């Protein structure tokens, strides 16, 4: 069973890395594939280009057992729809392997507006990570809206390639890429919100504004 964590990763931060690790452990996933999007469908232009964002994901995941960078969305033209990504993954991994698409609660709340929303659960399970500031009240009706069967048992996920929606409790880290970008823009030090290797690359490549004004990272 594999986990799929899509995102703009603009930049990747410890909020992403903790949900990937905790859900991998909770569900005993063989791997979590990080899928940086090329062109995000539902938001404004990212602060860094797709290759740079993927490079940051590569640094953050290097050497972590079970973390895999998957670049398939980067080379596709047009918006990076998760539906297309899932179909591409199904071609590679076959029809039977259970997939767990990992979403933060905010992303799950927006799911009904996604491209082919009603068809996603035919291709994957959805595992929702609680996120600070997001209410869970709307969760069951949302799951019903996209045709998911709500479950609390990992065994149900293993029993089928897709179709279930499951909530997983994770460490609540109130970190967002928006806040990290804002800190960088203002010349603040975002250490301890993102891995040092990611910050180093941001600084070397001059991403996200006034990074050159920041003091070097002690190592
Ligand atoms: P931005 O502020 O630019 O939207 P972000 O921090 O939300 O960035 P994304 O790349 O948009 O990061 O998120 C990718 C996925 O990770 C989404 O499903 C999102 O809900 C989830 N996620 C991101 N940060 C957290 C967090 N701190 N806790 C739980 N889930 C998170
Ligand atoms: Mg986001």
Automatic annotation (TrEMBL):
Q: Which HAMAP family does the record match to this protein?
A: NaMN_adenylyltr (MF_00244)
Q: Does the keyword Cell cycle apply?
A: no
Query: Where does this protein come from, organism-wise?
Result: Acidihalobacter prosperus
The function of this protein is: Catalyzes the reversible adenylation of nicotinate mononucleotide (NaMN) to nicotinic acid adenine dinucleotide (NaAD).
* Pathway assignment: Cofactor biosynthesis; NAD(+) biosynthesis; deamido-NAD(+) from nicotinate D-ribonucleotide: step 1/1
Write out the catalysed reaction: nicotinate beta-D-ribonucleotide + ATP + H(+) = deamido-NAD(+) + diphosphate
* Family, similarity comment: Belongs to the NadD family.
What are the recorded GO MF terms, alphabetically? ATP binding; nicotinate-nucleotide adenylyltransferase activity
Catalytic activity, EC: 2.7.7.18
Do you know which InterPro entries this protein is assigned to? Answer: Cyt_trans-like (IPR004821), NadD/NMNAT (IPR005248), Rossmann-like_a/b/a_fold (IPR014729)
**Which PANTHER family has this protein been placed in?**
NICOTINATE-NUCLEOTIDE ADENYLYLTRANSFERASE-RELATED, PHOSPHOPANTETHEINE ADENYLYLTRANSFERASE
Q: What is this protein called?
A: Probable nicotinate-nucleotide adenylyltransferase
Please name the gene that encodes this protein. nadD
For this UniProt record, the keywords arranged alphabetically read as follows: ATP-binding, NAD, Nucleotide-binding, Nucleotidyltransferase, Pyridine nucleotide biosynthesis, Transferase
A GO BP entry: NAD+ biosynthetic process
Which ranges carry the Cytidyltransferase-like domain? 4-182
């Amino acid at each position: 069973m594999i986990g799929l964590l899509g995102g703009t990763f603009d930049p990747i931060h410890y909020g992403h890395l903790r949900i990937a690790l905790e859900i991998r452990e909770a569900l005993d996933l063989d791997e979590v594939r990080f899928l940086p999007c090329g062109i995000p469908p539902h938001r404004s232009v990212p602060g860094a280009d797709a290759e740079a964002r993927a490079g940051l994901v590569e640094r953050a995941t290097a050497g972590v057992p079970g973390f895999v960078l998957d670049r398939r969305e980067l080379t596709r033209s047009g918006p990076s729809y998760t539906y297309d990504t899932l179909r591409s993954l199904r071609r590679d991994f076959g029809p039977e392997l259970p997939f767990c698409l990992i979403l933060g609660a905010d992303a799950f709340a927006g799911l009904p507006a996604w491209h082919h929303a009603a068809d996603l659960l035919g291709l994957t399970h959805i595992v929702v990570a609680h996120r600070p500031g997001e209410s869970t009240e709307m969760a069951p009706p949302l799951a019903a809206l996209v045709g998911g069967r709500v479950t609390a048992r990992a065994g149900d996920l293993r029993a089928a390639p897709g179709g279930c929606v499951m909530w997983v409790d994770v460490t609540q880290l109130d970190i967002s890429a928006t806040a990290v970008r804002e800190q960088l823009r203002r010349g603040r030090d975002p250490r301890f919100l993102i891995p040092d290797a990611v910050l180093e690359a941001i600084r070397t490549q001059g991403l996200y504004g006034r990074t050159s004004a920041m003091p070097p990272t002690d190592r």
